Amino acid sequence: MPAGSDLFLRMAWQRMGPSIADVAKLAGVGKGTVSRVLNGRPGVSEQTAAKVRQAIRQLGYTPNVQARRLAQNKSDLICFVLSNRDFLHEFHSLVLKGVESYCSKVGRDLVFALWRYPLDGNLASVVPPRIIANRGSVDGAILAGANHIECVKAISKLGVPCVAFGNNLIGCTYLSEVDSVWYDEQPGTREAIRYLASLGHRHIRFAANISLPWFARNYRAYSEAMLDFGLAPALIAVNDTTDYVEIGERAVQELLDSGEPTTAIFAGNDVVAVSVIRALARRGLKVPRDISVVGFDDSPRCIECDPKLTSVHVPKEALGAECARFLIEKISAPGRVSGARVVSTHLVVRESCAPPRQTS
Amino acid sequence: MPAGSDLFLRMAWQRMGPSIADVAKLAGVGKGTVSRVLNGRPGVSEQTAAKVRQAIRQLGYTPNVQARRLAQNKSDLICFVLSNRDFLHEFHSLVLKGVESYCSKVGRDLVFALWRYPLDGNLASVVPPRIIANRGSVDGAILAGANHIECVKAISKLGVPCVAFGNNLIGCTYLSEVDSVWYDEQPGTREAIRYLASLGHRHIRFAANISLPWFARNYRAYSEAMLDFGLAPALIAVNDTTDYVEIGERAVQELLDSGEPTTAIFAGNDVVAVSVIRALARRGLKVPRDISVVGFDDSPRCIECDPKLTSVHVPKEALGAECARFLIEKISAPGRVSGARVVSTHLVVRESCAPPRQTS
DNA sequence: AATTACTGTGGAACCGGTTCCAACGGATGC
DNA sequence: GCATCCGTTGGAACCGGTTCCACAGTAATT
Q: In this structure, are residues A142 and A163 in contact, taking their beta carbons and an 8 Å threshold?
């Protein structure tokens, strides 16, 4: 492009809009003044500002984002990284929604990236997503999906501020090992047990694959709640599959085979719960008449099944929003904030629980 | 920051990495040469290139993306816009997955944005998402979710290359009115009708709210297929609600009230289909023994319900990938490609259909 | 030996903003 | 009347890349 070419030439040659210099020239002021008006900084007389605004309108001027980013050495971009998930399931869709909603409120945009690596394998060869590795690409990252804690630390060490979704962290020994946001299973779980107990249930069993950390955490919360209410925790473990539907089916089979008295099932999540209900139905057992079922997550499918599922609500959007808030605090005050943040859960009562049948 | 400050000062003061000038100085070459090496351009001797690579390694240099973007006037960023959807449901999650997978293959990153506007109201006051309006922010946009065709045209007129998801376009009178990617309902629908007919069904009714354009398109495909097989199309319209679950329930009620002979229901989508199955079950009718049901979309819930749902598969990932491919072609060859592209559908047979009961 | 051709290479100019400093003009104070 | 101060303002320098032109060597040609 020819040096010093004027606006007309530039626009004709490439699809390039007017620049701040064109505005300045038309308004008869300096570049600095236009910049001040654009960013609402003080120190410009109303008269001059009006001239500038007029020129901006006349040219249809829009600031070039890249140039601003270069000059300010920041991008106003947040990266949402979904790790080791085949795609965005309902849960993370809602987390993303919370993140998006907070980000758009504070004028930041969202980059979406996937990240895959062996969660159990050799972590030494794991490379961060390109967008994170490129310096200056994004101001920070939210690590959602399932991550190994060492990979979160690795991203941090790259100098990119980041916040992780806590409950799916692998290898994390204590809450605040990395900056993270968690949902607390306890409040909702306690409510669920109290509710079942108040209906008269005594034999409430937990069904899941507790080799998966999130189920393990739920199970611990369940156990504590049971003990608090003077009840004996009991587990139906299906630890050799990660297919939630299969976990539900096999749990029912195992339960019926064992013949142990059971009046209610607390499922590790909603998919397991729905699968449990269907497996029970196939064996002629009706929910909640013959047995009560409680799910975990409060996903949309709770109201799409019959009976509608009583479930522990996880505030997914709030979780996402909290991740975003935390990250943006970290970005604007590096080193000033850190630790773990927690959002609460609560029970949503629907139709899948009833008083236990009078034992024959 | 002081002018001409050296690397050490810059890194100490702000968290700023080494720049291309630092690499050039260390390697004893010019900036241009370093740039040539970085971008793998010819015209650099192997000896010099080696020196440069050594210096890059020594400093741990990473190029600054923003600077590159400014100089090249492109961002390598694609925007995925989800319009008028409360969040990413399964369908669009999979479309997004297809987009992501194609983009990451060709080295582009993905920005995620939501866009809300009244689809029927006053379109004059609709403002495009900030990220699109900002010149230079993204190279192009994929408009997913439900869009009004005038809004797609408005984005185009801003000079931002874009491709829209076709099937949810409002106000679109012919396929190639804007650059778009569609799934073709016909092949899968014909397969479904042929399959039902081959089982012996003659009275197959379509259930949906056909005031919604996507259902209207499905209905048209259904009607054509029915006629082709010498059968009479019949509609159960529930046009006064957009709640899919309610559509299913009310359709069943209407069907039973009418008393018209019906041996199979072709639902507008899977959510409607599942709702139909449940509503039938509540009235003591079992699928597929008493009546057959076919869904549309082939969503995950097809295998999470009982019986597993036979459904017309929409290749959502392929659709997303095609959007991305189309857009990137538009970006690299402006004005050279345009029109509508189509991906096909096909039937996936599961458990929800059987030969019709011998009429009593 | 002089001319031509070609390969490498340095570096100035440029992308389009932000930031900061010097300077200007008018009002105020003495 | 002169010094001081403050609100405005222009513009140079800068952010960190890319691009392109000019030019130095060296090899090939005449």
A: yes
